[in-house]
Amino acid sequence: MRARRRLSQGSVQEAIIAYLRDGQEASVAEIRAAVSEALGREVPPSSVRSSLRLNDPLVFTRTNHGRYRLNSRLVAAGASERDRSG
């Protein structure tokens, strides 16, 4: 039987940031589904929750119980980057 490699915390965080980049708010379940799709494998809910909670509050903002969004400064930075490249 082949052992599954652990996901790096950085890969989960990067996928969350990519999903929330448009500024929307999302539940942990919605974020988990998007991260799993982006990484091509099931991601445990605990990995998503851990990434959301353990990161600097300058990255993610908790908007309500179980709901998060990307910090507005990062959303604005992403929009500026898209404007320059598009």
Note the topology.
Elements: H1 9-20, E1 26-27, H2 28-39, H3 45-54, E2 60-64, E3 67-70, H4 72-85
Antiparallel strand pairs: 1-3, 2-3
Helix pairs in contact: 1-2, 1-3
Rg value: 13 Å
- Structural class call reads alpha+beta
CATH class category label: Mainly Alpha
Task: Name the poorly predicted regions.
Answer: none
The coarse silhouette is: globular
- What is the strand tally? 3
Output the helix-strand order.
HEHHEEH
Mean pLDDT: 82
Query: How many discrete domains?
Result: 1
The number of distinct helices, counting runs of at least 4 residues, comes to 4
CATH topology: Arc Repressor Mutant, subunit A
The biggest beta sheet is recorded as: 3 strands, antiparallel
CATH architectural category:
Orthogonal Bundle
The largest sheet has its strands arranged as 1-3-2
The span between the termini is: 46 Å
Helix content bin: 55-70%
Residue share in β-strands: 5-15%
